[in-house]
């Protein structure tokens, strides 16, 4: 099943994209969005494996709540609150989160 990863910003996308070793669509919400905007972003991917990986801050929590309400089938993955932002999370931690989400990661990255 095709996977779709939802992140908040382009820096988050830039941080995780090089780690991924399979075709995955990464969608940036560009911060907090309305229910209407979220539907516009995710409706084309309904029925696919939607993975939510957003910052551990107020904006990220608001987005998670909205996704849970509008797309309850989406799977949520978290990083430790100490890192706050996906873009600031150590690569090793992000790799562990992606593996937990059943996303294949690049072998070169995992060996480093």
Explain what this protein looks like in three dimensions:
- The model has no long low-confidence stretch (mean pLDDT 92).
- The protein is an alpha/beta fold.
- It has helices at residues 10-16, 35-42, 58-70, 91-100, 107-111; strands at 3-7, 24-28, 49-52, 75-76.
- β3 (49-52), α3 and β4 form a beta-alpha-beta unit.
- It has one domain: Dna Topoisomerase Vi A Subunit, Chain: A, domain 2 (3-Layer(aba) Sandwich), CATH 3.40.1360.
- It has a 4-stranded parallel sheet.
- The longest helix has 13 residues, at 58-70.
Number of domains: 1
How many individual helices? 5
Radius of gyration: 13 Å
Structural class: alpha/beta
Helix content: 25-40%
Shape: globular
Mean pLDDT equals 92
Q: Describe the biggest sheet?
A: 4 strands, parallel
SSE pattern, N- to C-terminal: EHEHEHEHH
Give the strand line-up of the largest sheet.
Answer: 2-1-3-4
- CATH C-level label: Alpha Beta
By CATH, the architecture is named 3-Layer(aba) Sandwich
Beginning-to-end CA distance, first to last residue: 28 Å
Q: Please tally the β strands and state the result.
A: 4
Regions with little confidence, pLDDT below 50 for 5+ residues: none
Q: CATH topology, what is it called?
A: Dna Topoisomerase Vi A Subunit, Chain: A, domain 2
User: In percent, how much strand structure appears in the residues?
Assistant: 5-15%
Pfam family, one: Toprim
InterPro entries: TOPRIM_dom
GO molecular function, one term: ribonuclease M5 activity
Protein name: Toprim domain-containing protein
């Amino acid at each position: 099943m095709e996977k779709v990863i939802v992140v908040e910003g382009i820096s988050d996308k830039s941080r995780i994209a090089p780690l991924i070793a399979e075709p995955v669509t990464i969608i940036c919400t560009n911060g907090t969005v309305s229910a209407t905007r979220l539907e516009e972003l995710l409706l084309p991917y309904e029925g696919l494996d939607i993975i939510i990986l957003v910052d551990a801050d107020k904006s990220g929590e608001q987005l998670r709540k909205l996704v849970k309400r509008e797309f309850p089938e989406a799977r949520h993955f978290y990083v430790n609150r100490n890192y706050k932002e996906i873009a600031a999370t150590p690569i090793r931690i992000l790799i562990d989160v992606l593996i937990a989400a059943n996303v294949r990661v690049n072998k070169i990255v995992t060996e480093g």
